[in-house]
Amino acid sequence: MSSQQIKSQRENAVIYHGEELCRQKFYELLDNFSLPRGVLPVDMVEFGYNQSTGFIWLKQENKKVHKFPLINKTAYYDTEVTAFIEKGRLRSITGVKGKEFCAWFRLGNMHIKDPSSGKIEVAIIGGLGTTYPISAFELQDDKDDDQKKRNQDDKKKRNGDDKNINEDDKDEDQKNRSENDEDDCQKIRNKDDKDDGQKNRN
């Protein structure tokens, strides 16, 4: 079934070969459709995308079993994986099975209905499904980049707070210096007045 679909969609599709190029183009497509990059962790040798229909396919040399450690779930990927891609969604998936209670079930759809919820809905053929954290399907490198960005933002915020504190300290020092200068001037004026008074008495 997958091979027949691929054959019928090839004519108007953009096709890439080679693991590195396929991965790069597939990740770019997932980014454009607001899907996590680890949603289909396949070792690709061919990747195709028919923009007019939204049909995508991924070919790998060997079947693959992958475990998602964050949710403790295992998935099976055939040598050919296909789906239709939409904003935040992969539908009519073929070549992917999820393991539940020691049995394998074909995955049908993966859908992020509300990105702000941080959840992705995974449905198997037959209508059953559940939701998982989107982060479970993100690549470790992406998680590290996100954490690095958060750390940088926190550092900038702390530096901003420190700068404000330093500015306050500078303002306080300037104020104290101004007050001291004013006191010195007053002392000089008082001394001058005293000297003038002494001269007048003489």
TrEMBL record:
Residues 145-202 have a biased composition (Basic and acidic residues). InterPro entries: At5g01610-like, DUF538. Residues 139-202 are annotated as: Disordered. This is DUF538 family protein. It comes from Manihot esculenta (Cassava).
